[in-house]
Write a structure and sequence with these properties.
Length: about 400
């Protein structure tokens, strides 16, 4: 027996009528969505794109009615301190000058004092070495030079050091050794302070006192101080089997700066007999001081050697791969991969002072003068200088 299912309508009309209204309802909803999209594009997207084209940020605060819009400030670049230096974009060929001494073939060991450059001059000898027999004074302000014939008993005048009263130097033999000499600039008299048997020690002047580091034995170095007036000399330090005896000391005013036998950077004021140890936490070699800062190398002139300076009790790395360096009045000069550089501690800027396609060897610096040898062409020596202001 079949059971019939009876369907009962619950709406106000038949199901057939509802199905006929559904397509019209879908069209109506679609039109509403389309109108909403068109309104969004017209009232939101279009104004936003216009503002962006005019450079107006969508996140800017609206300008109150009746007020004048305040223009956004134009960003300015961060100032570059290098642009304040005279070296910035300078033509090096205009500010670098060659030193020409036609009377001699060779010059060495420049020392800058009172705006003048002092160096040893001489000629090559038959054995291929140079004999530096006179002291030359070159005045960059007038491009003039003069000579002084210092007493020489061995072969060459090396490492001249000058103040108002004295000229000290090493009267050096070809194979090393010689004598430490003091020459009175007023009287023209010389004094032999010490006979040297090994190496070529470099003397430094501290008023009437001469300071130098000397090899005195196979494994022994000594730091000496000698009073020129009395001829009395004392040993400040003994370096027995210590590699720090190979470090060259430095003198500034009444203080000698050196590396102790234990490897500590030391500042010793001799008149006051006050010795100060300066902590560096690194290897120290060849310290120098100009009264404003102390500089030193972290190794013995190798490619991995770092140049440091101590300024305002802060240790600051200056450059890596430094072969040699010197201090001027307001700058540090150093040689790196056959190029010379000048570093200004006041703002940390650095300039390369070697011209393109050239190589150079740094010879010295002092006051506001930098001096070097152009070694691009190995068949001749070209000595040049420039002012660093």
């Amino acid at each position: 027996m079949k059971h019939e299912r009876h369907y009962r309508s619950t709406g106000g009309g038949s199901g057939f009528n509802r199905f006929r209204i559904a397509p019209y309802f879908q069209i109506f909803v679609g039109l509403l969505i389309l109108a909403a999209v068109i309104g969004f594009l017209y009232y939101v997207v279009y104004p936003l794109s216009c503002n962006l084209a005019k450079g107006i940020s969508p996140f800017a605060s609206p300008t109150p009615v009746g007020s004048t819009p305040i223009p956004s400030p134009t960003p300015s670049p961060t100032p570059d301190p290098a642009q304040d230096h005279p070296l910035y974009r300078s033509d090096l060929t205009d500010i670098q000058k060659e030193i020409v001494i036609p009377e001699y073939q060779y010059l060495a060991d420049p020392f800058i004092y009172d705006g003048k450059i002092f160096f040893s001059v001489g000629n090559y000898t038959q054995d291929g070495t140079s004999s530096l027999i006179r002291l030359c004074t070159y005045d960059p302000s007038t491009d003039s030079h003069s000579f002084l014939s210092l007493p020489v008993k061995y072969k060459s005048i090396r490492f001249p050091c000058i103040n108002d009263k004295w000229i000290t130097y090493l009267d050096a033999a070809s194979s090393g050794g010689g004598r430490i000499v003091a020459y009175d600039r007023m009287s023209g008299q010389e004094k032999t302070l010490k006979i040297v048997h090994f190496g070529m020690p470099q003397p430094f002047l501290m008023n009437n006192i001469v300071i130098w580091m000397e090899r005195t034995g196979q494994n022994r170095d000594k730091l000496f101080a000698c009073d020129i007036e009395t001829g009395e000399s004392v040993t400040l330090e003994i370096f027995e089997g210590s590699e720090y005896g190979m470090s060259t000391p430095c003198v500034y005013e009444d203080t000698v700066y050196y590396v102790s036998p234990e490897g500590k950077l030391t500042a010793w004021n001799l008149p006051l007999n006050e010795k100060k140890i300066i902590n560096t936490d690194t290897y120290v070699h060849d310290p120098k001081c100009n009264g404003k800062l102390i500089a030193y190398l972290s190794g013995n002139h190798g490619e991995d050697c770092i140049l440091y300076m101590i300024k305002d009790e802060k240790i600051i790395p200056v450059a890596e791969g430094v072969h040699s360096y010197y201090l001027g009045q307001n700058f540090i000069s150093y040689n790196r991969y056959d190029k010379n550089y000048v570093y200004f501690p006041v703002d940390g800027t650095t300039f390369c002072t070697t011209r393109n396609l050239e190589t150079s060897m740094l010879l010295g610096a002092g006051e506001n003068i930098l001096i070097w040898m152009d070694v691009t062409w190995r068949d001749k020596d070209i000595c040049e200088y420039m002012y660093i202001n």
